[in-house]
Write a sequence for this structure.
């Protein structure tokens, strides 16, 4: 039941080499020691049964309602973790039909009016429960979603009390706009611990309420996260898998490979990879280092899903510029082997090769073939292996990625917990929407967005 990391293909000729990796071990150990001297709050979430109990109690209350669709309203870290959990651990992602025991789960991580209109036209709004997630309560996209759907629910029930019962507000335990609304209007709430930022929050009520309502194994999820956290804290630096993975990526970044390809083999892992993209990009892409010096540093993570993207991206990875590091994510034991039947005319090569084989064997052959092609081309590859695709191992994966991200920030000498670039975009959007206190930025924003008419085209 261990998460396994294989770095054997990560150091092809052309550097960095295995010797470079070993030489950098003392530098990495210093970063690890500093991290462990003040272990962040999110690394202890696997043991926080009090937060889980709050979510279980709220889930039991929600289940008393007549509803068949549970809707997450949020964006960024408030939504990606939910998508990752439901798509990795449910039978068919977010697409299943509701049953008496399991509602349909929909994560609405957008303010696209056409998409939201399609949602409103496609569901019975009176049979939905909405979880509004924003730690600050001031995320303008989430506020817009909340206002839109609260109005729709209120009109469906013709009652403020009935409408409020169809909402849970997950937000800061003491402060913020959503907290004020909840206190003034009587909405039920769940807390996001003040010490946990959005992209590290999936193991708080941000993700746990949805997981409970969906009937996922939340206790195993937290147990897996706790096992990985405890194992990494207890091991020696040279045995720390998250440290090794972070160090390999940072060395390749410093050597001119800034693109980090996360390559899960399995459709259930797609949204887990999307969750990782935000974690890696938002944590490590920084203008300034911890001393305040301008460095403009950061990897560019991207996602490929095997075997689908063997047919769409691998041509670039094998023969394009040597600027990438690839991490394959594989599942050791698929839940269903998928025996491939024999049929049609004997002797057709494409079919003969599948005789007596399974879909699981084919999937792994595809993955190994892709890895072999990349390694033969001198492209660095790592393999991250989950023994099974279940809640325990997804919890391990989540905690592994979070700890590795913190280590990478230390190795790069940047703060992995802030996001000033994101805040700049938020300020600009608020100014353009005429929000009080932000109008002073309008002149500067208009100048930046000014169009050169000679560079505009139509077709």
């Amino acid at each position: 039941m261990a998460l396994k990391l294989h770095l054997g293909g990560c150091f092809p000729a052309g550097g960095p080499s295995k010797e470079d990796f070993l030489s950098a071990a003392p530098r990495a150990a210093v970063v690890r020691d500093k991290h462990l001297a003040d272990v962040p709050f999110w690394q202890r979430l696997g043991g926080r049964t009090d937060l889980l109990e709050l979510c279980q109690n709220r889930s039991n209350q929600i289940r008393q309602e007549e509803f068949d669709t549970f809707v997450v309203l949020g964006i960024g870290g408030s939504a990606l973790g939910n998508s990752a959990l439901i798509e990795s651990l449910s039978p068919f992602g977010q697409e299943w039909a509701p049953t008496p025991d399991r509602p349909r789960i929909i994560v609405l991580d957008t303010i696209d009016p056409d998409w939201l209109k399609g949602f409103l036209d496609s569901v019975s709004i009176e049979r939905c429960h909405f979880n509004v997630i924003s730690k600050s309560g001031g995320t303008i996209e989430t506020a817009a979603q909340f206002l839109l759907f609260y109005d729709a629910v209120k009109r469906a029930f013709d009652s403020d009390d009935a409408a409020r019962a169809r909402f849970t507000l997950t937000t800061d335990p003491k402060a913020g706009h959503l907290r004020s609304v909840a206190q003034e209007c009587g909405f039920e709430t769940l807390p996001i611990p003040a010490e946990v930022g959005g992209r590290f929050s999936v193991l708080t009520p941000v993700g746990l309420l949805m997981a409970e309502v969906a009937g996922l194994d939340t206790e195993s999820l937290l147990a897996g996260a706790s096992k990985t956290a405890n194992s990494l804290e207890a091991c020696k630096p040279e045995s720390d898998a998250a440290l090794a993975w972070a160090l390999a990526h940072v060395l390749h970044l410093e050597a001119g490979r800034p693109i980090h390809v996360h390559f899960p083999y399995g459709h259930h892992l797609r949204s887990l990879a999307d969750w990782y993209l935000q974690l890696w990009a938002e944590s490590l892409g920084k203008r300034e280092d911890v001393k305040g010096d301008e460095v403009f540093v950061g990897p560019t993570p991207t996602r490929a899903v095997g075997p689908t993207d063997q047919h769409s991206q691998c041509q670039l990875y094998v023969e394009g510029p040597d600027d990438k590091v690839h991490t394959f994510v594989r599942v050791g034991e698929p839940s269903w082997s998928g025996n491939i039947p024999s049929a049609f005319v004997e002797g057709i090569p494409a079919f003969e090769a599948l005789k007596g084989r399974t879909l699981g064997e084919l999937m792994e052959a595809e993955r190994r073939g892709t890895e072999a092609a990349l390694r033969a081309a001198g492209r660095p590859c790592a393999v991250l292996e989950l023994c099974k695709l279940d809640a325990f191992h997804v919890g391990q994966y989540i905690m592994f990625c979070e700890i590795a991200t913190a280590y990478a920030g230390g190795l790069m000498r940047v703060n992995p917990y802030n996001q000033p670039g994101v805040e700049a975009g938020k300020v600009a959007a608020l100014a353009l929407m005429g929000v009080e206190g932000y109008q002073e930025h309008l002149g500067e924003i208009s100048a930046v967005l000014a169009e050169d008419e000679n560079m505009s085209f139509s077709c």
Summary: The domain at 43-218 is CATH 3.40.50.10490 (Rossmann fold). The mean pLDDT is 93. The two ends are 57 Å apart (CA to CA). The longest strand covers residues 324-333.
